[in-house]
Design goal:
17 strands; about 30% helix; single chain; 9-stranded mixed sheet
Length: about 375
């Protein structure tokens, strides 16, 4: 298996590379290219330029450049190599103009079947895995989900008609600088993130993509594969809790609340990069018309699903970092390609377009 990585910056260093090191598939040959020659990694064949990397008869290309460069890399990969699997980190593109151009490009079915808009939160599929066909049929040896207590056969599967709403959230822990102001923390190391975030890299696009991908893949697993998105901004503040003003095309949102519908299903998203030391909640609550509530959240390095039903509380746990599951089941899974890429990328494009339109409605056309 030959995998080529374009862009060896922070997301590769702190997320993808550690996952690849942990998995260490015996048949993997890893190639990499970055304009900065200082970025070198053990176990990788470093290419002097992009042409050299794309000449390697690759099975998978993983694009990890800054988002504004994604479209150029996509066009180059689609035209300059025959690689059947081209994976692009979120957001797949960075502007409404790029959305329109990529849509035209993917009108060709052969191209669409090669490109996956990748978001590792799409792998947070515990609820649909555990509740779509009844827990008595669950094969936990392959799903890697473990109940915290014995589970009987009486727990019923769920279907989309039962859903009354989905409340999703990504509340990141944050620290404080010397002036007592909130500052972001690196998601992998927990250290202060010293980057200066500016629009369009606020929470609406940056982490809203994660939360929407998680919601849409949950609903797709329950049969809602092409329902339209309709969203509005209920609140948008900067790092210091000041509202984002119309005409402000510089200040990044630090906290935002979005609401709307996916088809007829009410959804809400709370996005906060500065939730303080008590932050860290990353998941959703799924409300059903029979009174049950199913939640997905992170607990340390694990994903946890909890079923609340009157006085009953049941829990399942999947161990391991999200990127580890993403690399194992998506990046290295050569059987995952083709038509699956096409429909998933369509959903990711719809989500990015919706979030970009929200930023236009919030700040004015720009």
């Amino acid at each position: 298996m030959k995998v080529g990585v374009i862009g060896l910056g922070g997301i590769f260093e702190v997320a993808y590379y550690p996952a690849l090191q942990q998995l260490q598939p015996s048949d993997l040959t890893l190639y990499g290219f970055d304009p900065d020659p200082v970025r070198q990694f053990k176990g990788m064949i470093h290419c002097a330029n992009l042409d050299d990397l794309l000449a390697q008869s690759l099975d998978t290309v993983l694009i990890l450049t800054p988002p504004e460069l994604h479209l150029d890399m996509i066009k180059t990969c689609l035209s300059e190599c025959q690689c059947p699997r081209i994976l692009v980190e979120k957001p797949v593109v960075a502007s409404l103009a790029q959305v329109a151009e990529l849509k035209l490009l993917l009108n060709c079915p052969k191209r669409a079947r090669r490109l996956l808009a990748l978001d590792h939160w799409m792998c947070r599929d515990g609820v649909q895995r555990l509740f779509t066909s009844g827990l008595d049929n669950r094969d936990n040896s392959t799903l890697n989900w473990r109940p915290s207590q014995p589970i009987d056969d009486s727990i019923q599967p769920i279907n989309v008609a039962q859903i009354t709403k989905v409340e999703a959230f990504l509340l990141e822990q944050s620290g404080f600088n010397d002036q007592g102001e909130p500052v972001a923390l690196n998601f992998a190391t927990g250290e202060i993130d010293r980057r200066q975030f500016q629009h369009p890299d606020g929470v609406i696009l940056d982490i809203g993509t994660h939360v929407l991908a998680m919601i849409r893949e949950l609903l797709a697993g329950l049969g809602v594969t092409d329902a339209p998105l309709s969203l509005q901004v209920d609140l948008a503040e900067d790092r210091l809790s000041q509202p984002i003003a119309v005409g402000d095309v510089t200040t990044a949102e630090g906290h935002a609340i979005l609401s709307g519908f996916c088809g007829s299903i009410p959804i809400s998203l709370e996005l906060n990069k500065y939730a303080g030391p008590l932050g860290g909640q990353k998941g959703f609550n799924l409300y059903l018309n029979d009174g049950r509530v199913i939640s997905l959240d992170r607990s340390g390095d694990d994903d946890v699903v909890i079923l609340l039903n009157q006085q009953q509380s049941l829990q399942w746990r999947q161990k391991g970092a999200l990127y580890l599951h993403c690399v194992r089941y998506v990046v290295l899974n050569q059987d995952f390609a083709g038509d699956s890429f096409k429909v998933i990328t369509q959903r990711r494009l719809e989500e990015v377009e919706s979030l970009l339109l929200l930023q236009q409605s919030l700040r004015g056309v720009h």
